[in-house]
What we know:
Elements: H1 2-30, H2 34-46, H3 50-60, H4 70-83, H5 87-100, H6 107-120, H7 130-145, H8 152-180, H9 183-196, H10 203-219, H11 223-243, H12 250-269
Helix pairs in contact: 2-3, 2-4, 3-4, 4-5, 5-6, 6-7, 7-8, 8-9, 9-10, 10-11, 11-12
Amino acid sequence: xxxxxxxxxxxxxxxxxxxxxCGEYEKLLKSRDFQKKYDVGVEKYEExxxxxxxxxxxxxxxxxxxxxxxxxVKYYQAKSYYGQRDYLMAxxxxxxxxxxxxxxxxxxxxxxxxxxxxYKQSPRAELDQTNTMQTIQTLQLFMIKYPNSExxxxxxxxxxxxxxxxxxxxxISAKLYFxxxxxxxxxxxxxxxxxxxxxxxxxxxxxxxILKSSYLLADQSIPTKQRERFQATVDEYYSFIGEFxxxxxxxEANRIYENSNSFLGIKNQx
Length: 270
């Protein structure tokens, strides 16, 4: 009985403390004590209570504009949103600090974090890659602006990762036309992918799909276009086999070549 009563008292006191703390925070939000809001905002940030910290810094950002604390407030505001994983808002405030306070002690970090927020928003390869391209462009600008930065190695790693994702996106998009059976469009998209990323790890696969698309397009064409398209298939075969004479698709490539030559041979005899 005494034990249960003791537990109840402890829980009651703990609840009172929590509610009291919430009450103090709510009162602070309604007050005009901007210095205290700033101080508590820093405390909440350090305690990783990022939502409360961001709310307080949102309230004081305009108040401190034009003062010596202005960039510090903006820095904590950005970092508080970053702590919430709200990379869109965090990136916005990092960028705003960089543009508004070019002499800030936080400038280099904010320029990097602006790019890093784009990186955190970069989706998987199948989706739109606007943020991926923004990551690369912003990091490249960072490397030019800060040639002696300690973050250069990390920048290069991220740029390489994002470039690989763009290669993958290009491959997936081009392959989609092939998978759907739109062989004429597939040839164009596959060629464009190769031209844009000639060193892609998918080079053999792309070149083979161009060959096979050319063959299937010829096979499905009306008679008046077949000869020209089978000849184009033979030309694609020579390009493919010249680079990958013993590749994983060589056997099927040879079959396509033989079938195409067979068609052209029959037409030559008629």
